[in-house]
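Box 3.1. Reading complex inputs
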Amino acid sequence: MQLTRKMSWIVMAVSTLLTGAVVHAELSATDIMTRAEQRDIGKDEQSQITMTLVTKGGEKRVRKMKMLRLGKASSKKVLIHFLEPTDVRGVGFMVWRHKDKDDDRWLYLPSLKMVRRIAAADKRASFVGSDFVYEDIAGRDVDEDTHSLTGTEEVDAADCYVVKSVPKSAKSAEFSSKTSWVRKDSFVVVKETYLDKQGKKLKELTADDLGKVEGIWTARKQTVRNVQTGHYTVVTWDKVNYNTGLSDDDFTERQLRRGV
Amino acid sequence: MMTFLRDNPLHFGLVGVLLLATSGLLSAQQQEPSDGVEASSPREESSPVEIHGFLQTNNSIRPFRSGDFASQLLKAEQRGQLELSHKSPQWDANVKLDFLYDAVEAEASTQLREGYISCYGKNLDLRVGKQIITWGVGDLVFLTDVFPKDWAGFITGAPIEYLKEGSTGLRANYEKKGVGLEAIVIPEFEPDTFPTSDRLSFFTPYPQAADRILDPSERSEYGLRLSKTLSGFSSSLYLFSGRDPFPIVHFDPATSTATTRFGPLGMVGLSTQGNTKKGLLSAEAAYYRTEDTAGTDPEINNPSLKTLIGLERTLKGNETLGFQFTQDWMLRYGDYRRALPAGFPSRDSVLNTLTVRWRNSLRNDTVKPTLFGLYNLNDRDWFVKAEAQMEIRSGVWYLVGAHLFGGGKPYTMFGQFDHNDNVYFTVRAAF
């Protein structure tokens, strides 16, 4: 009886694992990107970030910022205030993502105590001179692209899905296609490559120092390298806290003006 | 304004209080943060007293002789700014003191750029002291922004942040459920800073006056701004009661005295800014109720309605192109024309102005060129500002630019500056 019960547990466990494997095996490329977008990243996040901009010649510029995030994917709100360098200290940026319509974005200039909106098309513009564009900060909807599964590969000894994504509207993106390496165990995107409109490799993103913070998979370091210019940007998360109780009231023009 | 601290002992006191407050915090910062701070607050930590500032040289030259004005240095200003600030979740304090020396005028002065204390509540923020207040959505066109500006510095190429001057007063900001209400009380009106240097050309009414007096125009100012994002558009309603920043000059022939004063102004305004398929749309309107409601005193501006519509489009990457069209509708225009003495220049009932702004950001934000042009279709006067800011390394940049002014009439807004074309050069090292 005892043995039978043990056996049944084993059978259940194996069948669950198998079912899981089958489910993973049957995931479409869109499913994979959706799982990546919808993975648990906490209800909110408060981070302190260091962004290092490095020229082809090795010259470095460092920007430190504080970031607040509420929600995820198309219902995400992000508030960023710069801490360093001095000449941009206090500059604020806020974005409210929306499903099926342009994001609302604000910029705060502390020297003029002025909040102004930013044109929606600027989402493909460089974010404070880095190799990230504004869209990288806010995120891009999965259904803005057509996805295809091109295979599986190992990245840093971890099994990854390889998904190619092509914008449904060429005007909606700075790239003609991107390829994402999504870890099978955590659905974290650990590598991305972008091709420009001419099909030449434009930039490459890698996520490193992956580990769990408060039970949530977190890449503490991201590097974006513009292959064409040799310029690259390294972002490290110096402090990360999840589920801190942020609310919509923390993502308002008042909070943007209030600064760090 | 440049001798602000020397002129106004009230501000000495304010600076002293703020410096004491911030220095007293040095020891407070060695304590652990209070347990009473809500976990939900995004600002959980107090910062120590931070010391920042910059050293800057800002120089301007008229490169060619223009009319009676020789080719000469217009400004050789050396400026050091010291900023002390402290932030905690419940309050902050900030002092920015500027130390200046202008080699052209051989003048040294100290200027309190900002000096305030803020308290933060759940829904209400209070800020008291000298602070910069900006209203409206215009780009170098100000309809609802009636707060002090430094036009003298602007004309000679001061960094754009110096166009705005601080107002000493109280500001309360209440926000709930996405609706913001800002209330401003400024006990003492402060006028804009206009050019006075004999190196600059500008319109002087009644040039025959033997004596010129500035009426202090003492009056408190009150402002209210109600704001909300409506259908993705940041929208505001403004109410203001205070002084008209546009000066009134009265000439008394008996004493040959020209008296400048600033008349009462009531202003109601609206603004909105948001994205459309065509780009970033801005719109603003303001009704100015001036002292001369009947429109029969030609020395005083009539009541007016001012409107602005602007569109900014992204060309590629960080490159943008923006246009603004503004109209200034003089009300009671017939009364104005009837009251205008013979021989006095008259203005049109509606002044139409077009502006264009191109800007870009190159080499990973280290090179930022911008071009701004303004043309008044009625007065046919114009202004061009072209500049490029280059970052040498983090916190160190230089800026070169040029201002061109034009217009056939010496009394129009930009025509009066016709001889002030200048090239300017700024270097700043921030710490």
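In summary: Residues 41-258 of chain A form a domain with the outer membrane lipoprotein receptor (LolB), chain A fold (CATH 2.50.20.10).
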